[in-house]
Amino acid sequence: GSYNAREKAVVSTQSTGDRTSKVIEDLFSADIVTICNGAILSEHDFCSTDLAVVGSQNHCEAGYDRYDGDFIHKFDAEEVSKGCYGLCGPWCHCWKKICGDCCWHPGCFQHDQYCENPDSRACKLGKGVVYGTKGLHKC
pLDDT value at position 43? Predict the structure, then answer.
């Protein structure tokens, strides 16, 4: 998921003391590691080590989406490079305690799209995650 600069500062400050290891070389394929360690994601807390990525051993714990009737997919290289839209949490850093997994969720995806304009009312009020066309979602 994406978020604005003010939120970035708060998240970075709050997570400084309890950050998980950022060693992802043994978890993800080389292309994903390159993207996660690249300039854009390194400015946004890198990637979570438990991120559900295509081809990785990390899996979705709650892999069924009751709204779309499809299995929730893992992130591919293109999705990671764009900032993991649909992940519960900022950019490619997962908030597993909120959603229960580090997979793609339709409500989070919708919210990330609204937050392309971080000053929008829809972004600030959590549209897509809290309310929206997908309704109240687990995420």
Answer: 87
